[in-house]
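Thread: quick sanity check before group meeting

JM: Hey all, I'm pulling together slides for Thursday and realized we never actually wrote out the predicted structure for the chain we discussed last week. Dropping the sequence here so it's in one place. If anyone has concerns about the input, flag it before I start.
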Amino acid sequence: MPYFSASGSGPDGESHANSDEPQSEDPRQSLQVKLQVRQRVIEMIENRLAAKPDDKHQRFILQEHILARDVLSAELRRLNLAQDLRYQDLDAFVNDYVQLLSADAPQVRAATVPSEAVAGQIKELKHELKTWQEMIEKVRARMQKRPGDPLLMRLLGEHQARQLAVQHSLNQLINGDDNSEGSDASLVLEQVEAKLGGAGDLSPPVATGASPEAAGSACLPDAETRQPEPIAQNPELFSLQKELEIFSGMVEKTRQRLANKPELLHLRALIQQHETRIQEIRARIVTLRSDSEGG
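JM (edit): ok, ran it. Output follows.
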């Protein structure tokens, strides 16, 4: 009589763990496959017991498989819950910061009339902000069909971080604050990287009604002295410098994570992607400065 061990081997002696089915990085998919295999074996043994109910050996094997199935089911429920909580925490964190940054927008200096260049930059940033908001809604719609999907969660986090970066830059332009040291955008990007990587602590802003600078100073280490060029002279250069700071911080943060967990090979591709963007930004900055000096 064929024997089914609790390790998942079939009657032909081949292990189901060596299936040719494509394996995903998401461990839940592997657990689901193992659960399906285990359930099929349990049903097969139950059919044999229906024909020979006094077979003690088959009853023992059945109990082993049922126990293993319950362990797999519990682990799958745990991973599903962790994925849901990770998304909910990240979403709540970003929403808190969106409200915090938006609350700073009405503090417009009435006596300040923006220059034509600044007004144009504000218009562009508002359009970019609307675009990111629309992209976020599209990702949310996809997540309704695939809840907890790690790729969609990462995409949502990146879009939300860019939304906050644009909102932060827009508030600086509207309030005429061109020399702000703190950047909530860089904080959010670091938190997104940490949360989606399964590390870090997503704490809410310091207090309701606090300024973005206060929230940033409470969560970020002292930043290096930055001397951005006047935005009135070249608003695109100012925006590129801010973006360069953000991506540089992301590269450093990801390198630290890779050093701590070298088995996370996908971090290498992420670092390469960020470094490629940094090279593009630096090339554009060099071009803008050359044009400015030539003019």
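AS: nice. The longest helix spans residues 56-104. The two ends are 89 Å apart (CA to CA).
JM: adding both to the slides.
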